[in-house]
Write a structure and sequence with these properties.
Elements lengths: L47 E6 L8 E7 L2 H5 L12 E2 L13
Length: about 100
Amino acid sequence: MTDDFFSNPASWWQSAQGVHREEIRLDFETEFYLTHVIVVFKSPRPAAMVLERSQDYGQTWRPYKYFSVNCTATFGLPDDGTEEGSLCTSRYSDVAPCTRGE
């Protein structure tokens, strides 16, 4: 994607209505060290979401971070608020705010 929400908030990607599972793939064509990933939602944030990464050009995928209101119930993982270093967090999974939630 070439859109930058912060400089052009009138442009966004949207899934089809009623779709429960969606996939977005970004090919950076080289190896990167990620320090921050910011996803800004135009609608309420999903109840659960997984960011995955591939180091072999999409042949295999590994979880990078899980997001859920309830990490244990959704993914069977502890929340990083209670267990430091956990792959799951509930910090960005609340339904509020309805728009511009990160």
